[in-house]
Each structure stands twice: as structure tokens, then as C-alpha cells.
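subagent[fold] <- orchestrator: predict structure for attached chain, return C-alpha cells only, no commentary.
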Amino acid sequence: MTTIVKHDAALSDDALLPILQSSLYPGAAPASIMMVLGYCRAAGLDPLQKPVHIVPMWDNKARQMRDVVMPGINLYRIQASRSGQFAGMSEPEYGPDITATLGGQKITYPEWCRVTVRRLLPLGAVAEFTAREFWIENYAVKGGMDKSVAPNAMWSKRPRGQIAKCASAQALRIAFPEIASAPTADEMEGRQMHADEAPAPSDDAPAELIERAETAASGGIAAYGAFWSAADKIERRALASRHADLKATATAADDARTIEADAEPADSEVEATQ
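subagent[fold] -> orchestrator:
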């Protein structure tokens, strides 16, 4: 007879640390894994599902590499699934192959990757949200003190797989702006912290841009997602401080339409009262 022993108490951080260090995060510093555990605890996530990654990034101010905890593409998929409105995702489509020399390294990569995410809207319709990401704009550089622009080991080995993750993350952000906003580990790998050329978020958004954003938000999640997808980086940065409120407006607009639809009597009910 087999006895199954259940452990009611959750494992402590001290107990999880060696497990994660020898499995999901091999070679990671204990302090970095503790950051993972803190992130997962705050977000109500299971660290054993590896929802976040430890990304080494070059810190321009400290002049050294630092570990940063960032969400993985799997976390976006989990959040979309939990919403109850995730209706699937297309297979990645790729543009033509390009062969180029980057940082003295020859590599062949797809020009772009396109992914479509489907979301079930409140009235039962299914909306499609498509993102196309270009490899040259996303690949992770080796970087470091010599600032090499050659692709790192993973992007050299899996040029299609890595850009597919970036396109999938962007499509999920467009389809579910209320649950996915931060860049994923795959998108930020090889980037710099405190980059000299990175402007700070601005609260001085042009009135015309604010008006377009508010109009899109009043049309619901699908309309606002399409607006956000079409916006360039400068426009998104200008709207950063208003993004959460705009998403809330879009969600409220969809909820209002659902209530109105539920309140309308069916044709059979109208005929019965006549």
C-alpha cells in the first residue's frame, strides 16, 4: 500500500533557494534568486513555473553588469489565460532571411516576425491583434565594456526563436494592455541600464495626442489596443503617465456596452408585450 504524504506548509525562501539555484536558475547569485522570490511573492506567482527571468544588464552609471528580474513570455501567457478572454495565438510568420555582419560576426536572420493574438470581447466577438517586430531592432548585443554590437550567444543560435518571443510579447501587450506592460526578459536582454540616450518619461503630451488617445479609449479595449500598437515610442513615452487611466477608461467602455446589451429586451419579449 502506497502512502502519499502532503506538505501543507509552503517551502520557505531558504528552502527554495538551493532548489532554484540548481534547476531553473543555475549559476545565479543567491541575492538574484531572492529577488525572484520577492517578485513572485508580491505578484502571487509560483516561482517553480519560472514566470520571471534573471537578466544581466550593463549599468552605465555603476560601470558594471547587474542582475535584473524581468517577466518572461510565459508570464504574459499565464496572465492572458487567467483573464478568461484569451482565444489563442497564431504561429509565428517570418519575413525574408537577411545575411549581415554585425560587430565582426556574420549571421543570417529573418527580417521580421509577425504574431497574432485573439481576444474574446464582452459581446462574444473575437478580435485579432497583430504585432510585427523587426529582428535588427530587437536582437540582444554582447555589449559589455567593449560595447560590442554583435548578437549574443542566444540570438546567434536561435535568431528565429528569439524574435518570435518578442513578437509574441508585443502582440499580447496589444491584446491585453491591462495585464501586460513591462518589457520581457527576451526584449531587454543585452540592453543597458541608465542608457545615456534614453529620455525620461514626459508628462507634456501634446493636446492632440491626448485627444486621440482618449477617443480610442472610449471605444473600448480593442480600439485602444489598436491605437497603442500604432503609436510610436515617442508618443508612448509622452502618454506613459496616463496609460493606466486610459486602460481603465477602455475597460469601463466595454463594460458599459455589455450592460446596455443585457438591458435590451429580446425580440420575443417585445412581441409578447404587444
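orchestrator: received. Logging for downstream: The longest helix spans residues 243-263. The chain has a mean pLDDT of 81.
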